[in-house]
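User: Design a sequence. Structure:
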């Protein structure tokens, strides 16, 4: 489905009546009859019909202060506006809390006649409902219930009903045919009945064609068939005509056949206003002279009070650079002469044509011989000079005319899906524009501006789906002080590629590159009204632009002005942009104060302190964040603190406190002690620490008993200085238990044929083996392996493993 976002698709239910189809959102698992977004090219309000239920509480100041609910006291409602508001709020709270259902409240409390259908208003055109009601209803998702809304009828609670969650089989009550095809009501048109009967008879074929243009919008025949069939049923011009015509032109912006067909349809209904709009839009960006000839013909058809000279002058100023327009130039010169214009004006336009570079311009040279023979030799030489430029443009136009684009693919805005042919075409046009910018034709400034204007429109004929080409064209016009046309191109570009945030962000970047801070700030400020993640991106870019162009102190004011919009990621990004470390830390402090329980915020601030070698405050920040958490501690904070302690090892008394944090996690806190061997020169091991190693012997990780000789009485033969050997005697119970467990594991291997329970990695054993055999202060080479395992959260607490549950305590 190309005219909808990627998560939406179009499907047909089983046994579809009249070839109806529905829309399905895979992300929310929602099916609905109503098109979720306005049709491409249509910019009016949407949807134009809707299915809702509501609860209405009236008060005595509404237009009809009488209840229609027969379960309530009849007669005039006596509630004041404030009393009605309080009542509707109480009902809303009951529904939110689950004390009563929406349907029950609607049946018992609503003053609308729809109470008998549990508030269901059924399908209806939005122009039949109160504007305030419609405005709120349009913002609701399927099954979403609104807060109280006021209209001229009273206070409402609205529920959106035009879809279902889950299976499409639950989709019932589709909109009426006359609503979907915009048939006027009887009171609005004397032909309403006849048009309704026509639409009803043609509905199956209309739905089928509508399905085809939705799923294959780049086939012009389907659009034309749909519009012609719709016209055969509708005796008057409706919003449906406009929607289908705009949709067709959206997918075929550079197709002469599509524009000509649209003009024919609009002439049938004598809709000059819409025809003028679409023609003016097309002429703003087209390079093709055929479009202008169509415009001239339509202007004469509509008897627009404009002379032939004015029509032709505008045409030649826009498309006169097309290499094969010598004939049009000759006609233009003849019209000027016939119009009685003086010789100098005619010569100026004739020389302009010869100075551009055209093919087949022999008759223009002949015309010059009649008017100014002495200039012929120069312009003949000029034509030779311009020949490479003519060939270059001729080749590009030939390529453009040969393109049969699958334009729907462009709407995905996914440049990674472009084919090799697409890449070559883009590169070709980019190179063409780059060469034109060099002005190798040696045009005067005014002529160069016209030439580049034409070249950009030529590129847009192929790259209309790319925001960058519209922005580049707009920037060129703005630079040349053509503000009015620049705004026109900007507006058309937004329609062509969608008024996307990316489009606006690129425009803001253009102003930043020019140093025009206020214009960029205006764009970012508007984008701040959009939801996240765009809001955070816009605020971050606004901060960066302010810091770059105004200074970091002034950028801090941007944060203070928009503190309610600032998210954790914004504080992190903003601080990283700062060159001044004091300002960066002040931003981190604001972020930590605002989001004290967000892990990413705490970790980013701590890493900043750590990078600036502020070990003490880093440790305090981690400890404070852990102390402030009321519920179970977040593992990410613990894990990062653990890594910090590994990188900045502390004395034993501090480690003894720190390791308590990890007792409830899957991280083995003994790694902290083991890592201390890297820092023996600062913090020598003491007997208590070796007793820790001895205690860990019962899990096989520190298995000194296994590797010591059988007659050894001690855990190690090299006790620390000042430690009596008896303090590190072997424990025979540990020996026996470990041996028993080993035998069980071996037996399990033999019985099952599979390896038994894997034992915990023995990095610590290797570490102490190095210590035993060499020197007490030698740094172990296997520690880094263990640290890596800690970082990946793979080391488990041995006490939670089944084979160690029966171990005797130390």
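Assistant: Done.
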């Amino acid at each position: 489905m190309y005219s909808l976002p990627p998560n939406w698709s179009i499907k047909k239910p089983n046994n579809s009546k009249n070839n109806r189809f529905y829309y399905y959102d895979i992300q929310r698992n929602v099916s609905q009859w109503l098109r979720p977004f306005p049709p491409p090219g249509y910019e009016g309000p949407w949807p134009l019909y809707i299915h809702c239920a509501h609860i209405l509480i009236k008060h005595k100041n509404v237009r009809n202060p009488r209840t229609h609910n027969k379960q309530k006291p009849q007669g005039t409602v006596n509630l004041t506006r404030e009393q009605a508001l309080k009542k509707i709020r109480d009902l809303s709270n009951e529904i939110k809390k689950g004390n009563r259902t929406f349907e029950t409240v609607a049946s018992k409390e609503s003053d609308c006649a729809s109470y008998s259908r549990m508030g269901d208003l059924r399908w209806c055109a939005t122009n039949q409902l109160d504007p305030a009601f419609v405005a709120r209803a349009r913002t609701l998702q399927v099954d979403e219930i609104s807060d109280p809304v006021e209209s001229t009828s009273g206070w409402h609670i609205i529920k959106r009903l035009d879809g279902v969650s889950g299976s499409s089989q639950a989709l019932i009550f589709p909109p009426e045919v006359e609503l979907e095809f915009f048939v006027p009501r009887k009171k609005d048109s004397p032909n309403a009945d006849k048009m309704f009967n026509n639409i009803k008879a043609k509905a199956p074929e209309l739905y089928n064609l509508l399905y085809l243009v939705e799923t294959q919008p780049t086939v012009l025949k389907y659009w034309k068939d749909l519009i012609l069939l719709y016209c055969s049923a509708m005796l008057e011009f409706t919003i449906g005509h406009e929607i289908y015509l705009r949709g067709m032109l959206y997918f075929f912006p550079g197709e002469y056949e599509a524009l000509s067909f649209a003009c024919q349809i609009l002439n049938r209904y004598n809709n000059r206003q819409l025809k003028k709009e679409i023609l003016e839009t097309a002429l703003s960006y087209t390079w093709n002279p055929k479009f202008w000839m169509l415009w001239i013909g339509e202007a004469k058809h509509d008897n627009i009070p404009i002379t032939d000279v004015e029509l032709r002058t505008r045409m030649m100023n826009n498309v006169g650079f097309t290499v094969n327009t010598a004939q049009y130039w000759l006609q233009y010169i003849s019209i000027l002469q016939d119009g009685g214009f003086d010789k100098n004006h005619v010569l100026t336009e004739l020389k302009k044509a010869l100075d551009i570079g055209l093919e087949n311009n022999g008759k223009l040279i002949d015309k010059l011989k009649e008017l100014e023979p002495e200039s012929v030799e120069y312009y003949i030489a000029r034509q030779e000079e311009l020949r490479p430029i003519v060939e270059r443009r001729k080749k590009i136009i030939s390529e453009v005319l040969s393109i049969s684009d699958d334009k729907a693919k462009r709407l995905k805005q996914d440049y990674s899906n472009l084919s090799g042919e697409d890449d070559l075409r883009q590169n070709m046009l980019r190179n063409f524009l780059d060469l034109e910018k060099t002005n190798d034709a040696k045009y005067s400034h005014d002529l160069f501006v016209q030439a580049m204007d034409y070249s950009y429109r030529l590129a847009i004929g192929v790259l209309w789906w790319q925001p960058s080409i519209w922005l580049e064209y707009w920037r060129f016009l703005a630079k040349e002080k053509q503000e009015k046309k620049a705004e026109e191109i900007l507006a058309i570009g937004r329609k062509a590629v969608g008024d996307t945030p990316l489009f606006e962000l690129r425009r803001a970047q253009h102003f930043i590159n020019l140093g025009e801070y206020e214009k960029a700030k205006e764009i970012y400020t508007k984008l701040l009204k959009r939801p996240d993640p765009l809001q955070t991106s816009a605020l971050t870019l606004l901060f960066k632009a302010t810091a770059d162009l105004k200074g970091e102190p002034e950028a801090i004011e941007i944060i203070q002005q928009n503190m309610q919009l600032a998210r954790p990621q914004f504080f992190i990004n903003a601080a990283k942009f700062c060159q001044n470390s004091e300002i960066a830390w002040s931003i981190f402090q604001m972020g930590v104060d605002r989001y004290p329980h967000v892990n990413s915020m705490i970790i980013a601030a701590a890493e900043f302190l750590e990078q600036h070698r502020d070990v003490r405050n880093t440790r305090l920040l981690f400890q404070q964040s852990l102390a402030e958490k009321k519920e179970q501690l977040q593992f990410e904070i613990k894990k990062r603190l653990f890594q910090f302690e590994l990188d900045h090892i502390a004395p034993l008394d501090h480690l003894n406190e720190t390791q308590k944090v990890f007792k409830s996690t899957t991280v083995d806190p003994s790694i902290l002690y083991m890592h201390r061997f890297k820092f023996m020169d600062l913090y020598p091991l003491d007997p208590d620490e070796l007793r820790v190693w001895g205690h860990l012997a019962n899990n096989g990780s520190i298995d000194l008993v296994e590797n010591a000789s059988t007659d050894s009485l001690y855990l190690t033969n090299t006790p620390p200085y000042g430690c009596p050997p008896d303090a590190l005697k072997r424990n025979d119970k540990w020996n026996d238990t470990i041996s028993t467990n080993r035998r069980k594991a071996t037996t399990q291997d033999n019985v099952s044929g599979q390896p038994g329970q894997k034992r915990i990695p023995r990095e610590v054993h290797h570490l102490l083996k190095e210590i035993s055999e060499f020197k007490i202060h030698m740094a172990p080479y296997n520690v880094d392996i263990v640290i890596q395992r800690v970082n990946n959260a793979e080391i488990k607490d041995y006490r939670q493993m089944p084979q160690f549950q029966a171990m005797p305590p130390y």
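The two ends are 68 Å apart (CA to CA). The mean pLDDT is 77.
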